[in-house]
Amino acid sequence: MTLFTEQFELGQNDELTGGVKDNIDVAGFVTQAGSEALAHNPKATEHADVVNAMLSSGVKLVGKLNMHELAYGMTGVNAYRGTPVNYLFPDYIPGGSSSACAAAVAQGAIDFSIGTDTGGSIRVPAACCGVYGLKPTYGRISRKGVLPQESTLDCVGPLAFSAEKLIRAMQSIDSTFSPVASKDIIKLGKVTVNAKHTIQALVDGAIDKEFIQLRPAALPSLVEAFEVGLPLMNFEMCQAFGHLVETGKLGNDVQNRLLAARDIDESIVAKANVVRKKFTQEVDRALRGVDALVLPTLAAFPLKRTDALAGQNDLQISSLTRPFNLSGHPAITIPIRNNLGKPVGMQLVGAKGNDEMICYIAQKISDSNKTYA
């Protein structure tokens, strides 16, 4: 089973169906996080908070979704559970770590899915698979009942094939989520980044709308935020899962990353917090006077599936997503349909707590051009 690790039916409403990533507790099932090393853990006795919210809002939960093992990889390759096929772009990786969360909504197996994002693990697979994905403001959605239990970076959020369904998904997991009033003009700060020219050109074309006003926006510490965010995540993942190295049941990529993470000194936490404060202030300044910031989701096209299955990796794929895990700002990826036969995504970053605005902009862009799903 490369999409679902478990299939079931919880809830009575057939109007909206959802699935959750395999690192999210569903009572009666083992939370394996895509790993054989956790296969014999006790079954969860309670639903995660996000699962309770879904069921309370009338969503029919139909299963748990496959993922990159331990949510610790960007390709979606999983030798234990199988690697989901990228439905719209089968030659390319599905992305990770919420691989099947993206693949399932692209395929139409469910209306939306709930994944987790520590460095781009919602936005990267969503961009790879040509769907929408939202990393909410850090802390907005409860992580109770989610692995890893502790993280200064990880967020729970939805993926869907359309902006409308993504908004409905957010409403189902967050009772405070309220659509914003319509705006005639949307002001965006365009962040200059080192992205492939073809990708940047497609992003520029996607925001060339009468209702969008652009101005330049500077994030001088973007690269530094990526460079410090990666070892911080590695350090935190080693704290959570380092003991599993001794089981002999981890995939090679995860085993090697956890072993390497043992050498990261805990001083990385203090260093990361310094950059976190600086970069957060930069993002806040850049957002003054605009509704959101805009930049590509992926700086380059993703790996080919065959290369990833052969063992290649590309941690740079998160170079434009990971910084906003460090700062905690909400960020959404919007698919850009094109004639290249390759996945391209555009990322919007909003003010903390104003997740509704970037979802509104995503839907308005979607509505303005039928080539957006």
Describe the structure.
The protein has 373 residues and is an alpha/beta fold. Helices cover 32% and strands 16% of the residues. The protein has eleven helices and eleven strands. It has helices at residues 49-56, 99-107, 123-129, 163-173, 197-206, 222-241, 252-261, 267-286, 305-309, 323-327, 355-368, and strands at residues 4-10, 17-21, 60-65, 112-117, 132-135, 155-160, 186-191, 212-217, 292-296, 331-335, 345-349. Strands 1-3-2-4-6-5-10-11-9-7-8 form an eleven-stranded mixed beta sheet, with helices on both faces. The longest helix is centred in the middle third of the chain and has 20 residues, at 222-241. The protein starts with a strand and ends in a 5-residue tail after the last helix. The model has no long low-confidence stretch (mean pLDDT 97).
| Poorly predicted sequence stretches spanning 5 or more consecutive residues | none
Q: Write down the overall geometry.
A: globular
Number of strands: 11
Count, helices: 11
Radius of gyration: 19 Å
**Tell me about the biggest sheet?**
11 strands, mixed
Descriptive key words:
373 residues, alpha/beta, eleven-stranded mixed beta sheet, globular
Give a short summary of the structure.
This protein has 373 residues and is α/β, with parallel strands linked by helices. The chain has helices at residues 49-56, 99-107, 123-129, 163-173, 197-206, 222-241, 252-261, 267-286, 305-309, 323-327, 355-368, and strands at 4-10, 17-21, 60-65, 112-117, 132-135, 155-160, 186-191, 212-217, 292-296, 331-335, 345-349. Helix 2 runs parallel beside helix 3, helix 4 (163-173) packs antiparallel against helix 11 and helix 6 (222-241) packs across helix 7 (252-261).
